[in-house]
Fold:
Amino acid sequence: MNHANLKKRTIMRHPGLAAILVAVALAANARPPTTSSDIDRIVHSMSLDEKVGQMTQLDISMLLVPGANTIAFDTNRMREAIVEYGIGSIFNPGLGHPMPLKEWHYLIRTVQGMATTETPHKIPILYGIDSIHGASFMEGGTLYPQGMALAATCDPPLVQACAHVSAMETRAAGVRWTFAPVLGVARQPLWPRFPETLGEDPYLASVLGAAEVRGFQGRNLAAPTAVAACMKHYMGYSFPFNGHDRTLALIPDYYLREYFLPPFAAAVRAGVATVMINSGEVNGVPVHASHYLLTDVLRHELGFRGVAVSDWHDVIRLHTWHHVAATPEDAVGMAVKAGLDMSMVPDDYSFPTLLKKAVEDGKIPESRIDESVRRILTLKMELGLFKDPYPEAAAVKNFARPEYRKVALRAAEEAMTLLKNEGNFLPLKKDDKVLVAGPTANTLFSLNGCWSYTWQGTNAEWYPPGEPTVVQAIRKEIGATNVVYDEGVDFEGMDISTANAVADAKNADVVVLCLGENSYAETPGDINDLDLPAGQQALAMDLYATGKPVVLVLLEGRGRIIRKIVPDARAILMGYWPGSQGAQAIAHVLFGDFDPSGKLPFTYNRYQNNFLTYDRDYTDGRPEAPDDTPQFEFGTGLSYTTFAYSNLKLTSPVLKGTGKLQVSVDVSNTGKREGMETVELFTHEFYASIAPPLKRLRAFKKIDLQPGQTRTVHFTLTARDLAFVNAQSQLATETGDFEVEIGNLEQTFRYEE
Ligand code: NOJ
Structure:
């Protein structure tokens, strides 16, 4: 069907009506809306065409000269999108790579110029972008660590600061909406978006996700330092049964609410402005068609009042992929009835055309459309777009300030997670002769990962000059003459120069072997085998055979299985995807300038066929099952100093009803240098109506201790902290005996309703 023709015919049939509407609109829009009644007035005076247009989001390429390699607007295509279809939102960088601010400003000015002069109601465009770990599509933007690395920092103010930098740089470009944070919890280790998440634990992801929302949005979306956040991908995307992107997730309701809902609930409490819907299916129901998840749970239970946007192509995919809608029109109707406000179509006019038809055919009440349009216009009003839709001088000056790099560096340093340090082998000495080897040692891709200047992050030409790779950072740290580099093998494990690496190892004091993954995003990152490629492991074995001490540095989005090469490594440093300053952070930690304090935010599995999480069921870790433990437990993270825990105290052995239980513990730095420690409080219920997990993280605090210093850390527990979702899908705290666990200490107490 030619949707464009259909639409054009529709407009031409009602020329008189269109003129009246324009007159009404001009009068109504004499001053920008500032209240919800102003928004109501606009919505009431809009035509159905305008309303379905507002619910439509297009890729910017729909407005450009096809195939051009600069931002070249095609006036006819632009007018078709903005004036004829009256689309509400545009996204993406246009050319698939970053652009200088000037280009962004031209782009934003051009689209806003047309939207606010040539459309009946002069409604500005809401522009969105994937600033996932920094403003990656703005040339010179600051890339901070990916979500998993941020989670390792256990440092909410730092995570908030990273998001705030991203907001400032994004808004400086004139864009006021980012599709972040990613709030799916990582409980399927094969999933290619594992590294974008805030780890496997719902509490940690809730605290840090809310911090990101605050960092992006600040207190006032109209401020030139704020962007609207988009919690995504709601919900269950991160738990595909087969581990592949956008495939079926089987999640019982109790488990969905216990593990996947909390970060979204926390983001709603933090005031998140928008949500993006999971492209996949949960229990056979595509989430884009789930009234239960999109309306009953999200709106009625969580109280979310913002805008729900689809993911890429996902409305039409209810027909073409999921086969739950027999026709494209049914697909549109299904999604809108389920609770969708805006469709990321993004490359045709099917959505507004079919939505209009569905309303005209009486399949969707216009009041339902009004509801979505009201939400969209309210967001535009809150972002200050009606007042000034153009790039703001006060925002532009906030771009690429030198202090942002310091924030990114600090986050990368705090993310560094020391998984093994045999005989305190690290830190290395600065006069050591070092061989740096491995496929991740001399590339920016495996430091930054996806959404790094391009979607996949693998295009070298778009990385800014001057950001060091690991080998470059180590040269800078200890002097180039002390460092030799051999790649050894590539990411797939194909031999490049293993023989050289082995020969050079013999002349070195120590080998820093950088293994892991290249960069990937979404479906291109699917794998069928979690093992680290055999060739990479073989390189480790060949280097161990030289007898020289080897330190493994892992730069990877997922915990690729490394069971065979763990025992002979003298030390193992988990670097995740630490962002643009990651290499310096690695050098600082390896050579002792920075004391590592990161805590592993996921369970690093030992075996392909035994995927575990820290909060596993008793049956997963029965003592009689041999060697059933993960490679590295959730929360693993060593320091160059040592901490001792003592005096775990509870104010009472019983917590009653709505009362409070105070918990305190003394933490001492018993080593010789200053260090940071994340004090984690876990609880465990001995018996419950749903088989209780071995433990659950309920609170954490990160503290800084001088050598010899002791601090008392306080926590408060309420019944809410002990609750779980029962078989009736209700959050409940059952009377029973509990254990609180901090460090190596435990205390029991009883909860009574
Ligand atoms: C698809 C991805 O799933 C989503 O995370 C992203 O925000 C959109 N594309 C827009 O680029």
Summary: The chain is about 30% helix and 15% strand.
